[in-house]
From TrEMBL:
The keyword Transport applies. This is Group 1 truncated hemoglobin. Belongs to the truncated hemoglobin family. Group I subfamily. Keywords: Heme, Iron, Metal-binding, Oxygen transport, Transport. InterPro entries: Globin-like_sf, Globin/Proto, Hemoglobin_trunc, Hemoglobin_trunc_I. It comes from the Bacteria. Its cofactor is heme.
Amino acid sequence: MPRSLWLIVGLSLSLLVGCAQQPAKDDSLYQDLGQRAGIQKIVEGMLLYIAQDDRIYKYFAKVDIVRVRDKLVERFCVEAGGPCTYTGDSLEEVHKGMKLSRSDFNALVEDLIAAMNEQHIPVTTQNRFIARLAPQRGEVIEK
Ligand code: HEM
């Protein structure tokens, strides 16, 4: 085999090995939520529902809502498998001192569902997304 061909075979093999070591990330949920623009609409919708939600509005009354919106979009994007980086603080740190309960958590999830319904996100997609958020409840409540 000519030397140049060896080089090509070698390079192709190393590419294959590289791919095998780093499997392509599954971003189907990110796509189904409408990518970053779709996620931003969902977050903004959720915050609007929260603003009308007497159960949990009190927690948000004095926050920097633009920052919370931006960090939530990043966070949800990462959770959905999208190409984003979360630059906010840890969930434990952020929610420390709020003493959130399970009911508070459920109320926020209800507002999130309302926002996803408004964006016509199919229920199967909604359930996939909520299944990724649910395990984080422990980092958020009773802190
Ligand atoms: C899995 C569920 C949750 C996630 C992933 C989440 C995520 C976040 C993120 C990313 C931020 C912004 C962080 C930053 O500024 O660096 C934030 C802030 C906040 N979250 Fe949550 N959160 C969750 C549940 C809740 C619940 C249930 C409540 C209350 C009912 C809540 C109330 C707040 C408030 C009030 C802030 C603003 C804090 C501040 O800026 O002082 N969160 N959350």
